Amino acid sequence: MKKETLKIGGMHCASCSALLEMKLNGTEGITDAVVSIATGKATFTYDENAVSLNDVEKIVNSLGFFVEKEEQDVKKNRFNTLKKKFIFSALFSFPLLVFSMLPMLGPGSGLVSENHTIYGLIQLLLCIPVIITGFDFYKNGFRNLINFRPNMDTLIAVSTSVAFIYSVIELVLGAHHFYFESSAVIITLVLLGNMLEERAKGKTGEAIKSLMKLAPKTAVLCIGDEVKEVDVSLIKPGDILLVKTGDSIPVDGEIVEGEPSVDESMLTGESMPIEKMSGDNVTGGTIVVNGYLKMKATKVGKDTVLSQIIKLVEDAQGSKAPIARLADKVSLVFVPTVIAIALISFCVWLLSTGDLYFSFKIFISVLVIACPCALGLATPTAIMVGTGRAAKMGILFKNAESLETANKATTIVLDKTGTLTKGEPVVTDVISKDIEEEELIKLTASVEKFSTHPLAKAIVKFADEKNIKYEDATDVTVSSGLGISGVVNGDKVTIGNSTFTNATENNDLAKQGKTLVYVSVNEELKGIFAIADDIKEDSIEVIAKLKNMGLKTVMITGDNMVTASAVADKLKIDSVYAGVLPQDKAKYVKKYMDMGQTVIMVGDGINDAPALTQANVGIAIGSGTDVAIESADVVLVKNSISDVAEAIKISRKVMVNIKQNLFWAFCYNCLGIPVAAGILYLFGGPLLSPMIAAGAMSLSSVCVVTNALRLNRMK
């Protein structure tokens, strides 16, 4: 099975995308088809032995759409095309509208009263160019009507065709009731609405465009002692590249020379440059703000971090949330229902009034105002803007479903090590006895520098941070599982647990979940180092924020209960499970899901991958393992636990926006259709003209997209 994404042209509404999606999913050999009206893309999985891409293209063409090739995408600008069509049709529609109003001037208005045929012919000649401009509406609309799959184009095609044909018949018969201006103005206003909608939709893709702009087009390649500027696409892993101050790093790689300051704000959101040195990794798209570097390319093309981020955002914007499928189902039923309502309204008014012209006006108005554009745009535009804005904040939603599900979360399960804590041991307390603290640290570090144990590294790092110089140590002996000893300036220094150093256990520090390292000098206890995996600076604030958002907090760790409880108490976490094996973490997540909870799992390690997959939504810390990131639904690029709360907040805001859009779209149609059908007129109120209906229909789509664009202001 192979996954493919095609750019689809010719789709105008939710009915179009739903129709194509249904057709693709109903084709043997094609599964998981998702068609987005907002992105104009169809993503699907297909069996190459059962169906080819040519077959898929034939299916697309049979429904009146077409596959846009990459070359066409570059050349074709739908907004400019619609703009030209609108201007052209407006040049004919405006004088036609003015001319059609001449009868309102009264019987003495010259041309109209003297010759209805000339009056009608002039209107016909002005209308025909507009009809030709809107040819796509008729081609797609009638094709889908014949296939019993009516869509928005069908409503426009039927309403304007009825008005046009009726007017031509009137002209031939020598009558003087014409609706040429209705046909022309409806097409013009729909083109205007499509143009404004396309411009607004274009802004929803700004996140992708801004990310793409981060990737430089060229790189400076080092070949021996020479340097050469080449296209980035020619860079291969292993190539040596030179990057100077102010330049963007072209691909992912490792520094082999130089100590630059690098602006990584596009990845981390942090404005302060990061000091780098030889051996450090750098990411394509980040900027050298000071110094220079030579780097060895490690990941190029689609394998770079930036390319992966762009791919994640594109996939999320093209996917569908469950709530979007509801709108699709409604759209498929909605259009034929509207046609039925229009026909019924026409018949009822014709039978009750006997006025054919009046009944036609009702028929046309109902068809035009009911176009389900706003309904189809309600969800995908909000998802596009929301996921794009989240990406700029360093929060990557892999799909729309996770964006929606996060909004419903009731329980959040968090891994401890590397998620709530820093993931590395640090010295938290030093207790000295009959010795200066600095001297104790110097003696201990002088011996511990020979050990590779994590606790030893923590003590050595602690000494380095305090700029304490080591002494030479001799006769260093490591006792596995117990500790280490050596001689410093003639004194025997023994470091390890209480048994190894003949010390008495300090229960107060142990109860806090800290690991204790005892230090004896010449068989006499001189000090204790308390070491712990320190809690991240923002963890306390995040847990408080999550609880204020109504979420139950749970911590799962493989660490012992004493340490786990100490961390949980400090963070005020609701429930804690300690001593949990990696393969059992998913069981605890499932336990809460079986209780009816919607669970978010947050982790960073390989051992978290099963739980991340099991949860309703898995969130991976960006610095975590590739396995954890692959297993998760959401990735926090900035490695900040505070973004967990931000991700949930974004989800909630996007869902509120979607519900606002759907409410507006449904309300608009529920109120607009009865008005167009003449309900208000029945009780002495106004009658909705076809032209006003067309304007209102276009405005509703623009309102929905504009509302979605408000999400760009999320902070």
Instruction: State the helical fraction.
Output: 40-55%
> What's the N-to-C terminus distance?
40 Å
In spatial order, strands of the major sheet run 14-26-25-24-15-22-23
Largest sheet: 7 strands, mixed
Tally of DSSP β-strands: 26
Output mean pLDDT. Answer: 81
Structural class: alpha+beta
Shape: elongated
Contiguous uncertain segments of 5+ residues: 71-76, 108-113
Task: Count the DSSP helices.
Answer: 29
List its salient traits.
29 helices, alpha+beta, 7-stranded mixed β-sheet, 20% strand, 715 residues
Structure summary:
The chain is α+β, with helices and mostly antiparallel strands and 715 residues long. The two termini are 40 Å apart.
Could you characterize the architecture of this molecule?
By secondary structure, this protein is of the alpha+beta class. It is built from 29 helices and 26 strands. The strands form 5 sheets. A 7-stranded mixed beta sheet has the order 14-26-25-24-15-22-23, with helices on both faces. A 6-stranded antiparallel beta sheet has the order 6-5-7-13-8-11, with no helix packed on it.
Write the layout of secondary structure elements.
Layout (H helix, E strand, L loop, with lengths): L1 E8 L4 H12 L4 E7 L4 E6 L6 H10 L3 E3 L1 H6 L2 H23 L10 H4 L1 H18 L1 H12 L5 H22 L6 H25 L1 H9 L3 E6 L2 E6 L8 E4 L8 E6 L3 E3 L1 H4 L5 E2 L5 E2 L4 E4 L2 E7 L5 H14 L3 H32 L2 H14 L3 H20 L2 E3 L2 H7 L4 E5 H5 E12 L4 H12 L5 H12 L7 E7 L3 E6 L2 E6 L1 H4 L5 H4 L4 E7 L2 E12 L3 H10 L3 E5 L4 H11 L3 E3 L7 H10 L4 E5 L5 H6 L2 E5 L4 H6 L2 E3 L5 H35 L2 H4 L7 H20 L6
Parallel strand pairs: 15-22, 15-24, 22-23, 24-25, 25-26
Antiparallel strand pairs: 1-3, 1-4, 2-3, 5-6, 5-7, 7-13, 8-11, 8-13, 9-10, 9-12, 14-26, 16-21, 17-18, 18-19, 19-20, 20-21
Helix pairs in contact: 1-13, 4-6, 4-9, 6-8, 6-9, 7-8, 8-9, 8-14, 9-29, 10-12, 10-15, 12-15, 13-14, 13-15, 14-27, 14-29, 15-27, 15-29, 16-27, 18-19, 27-29
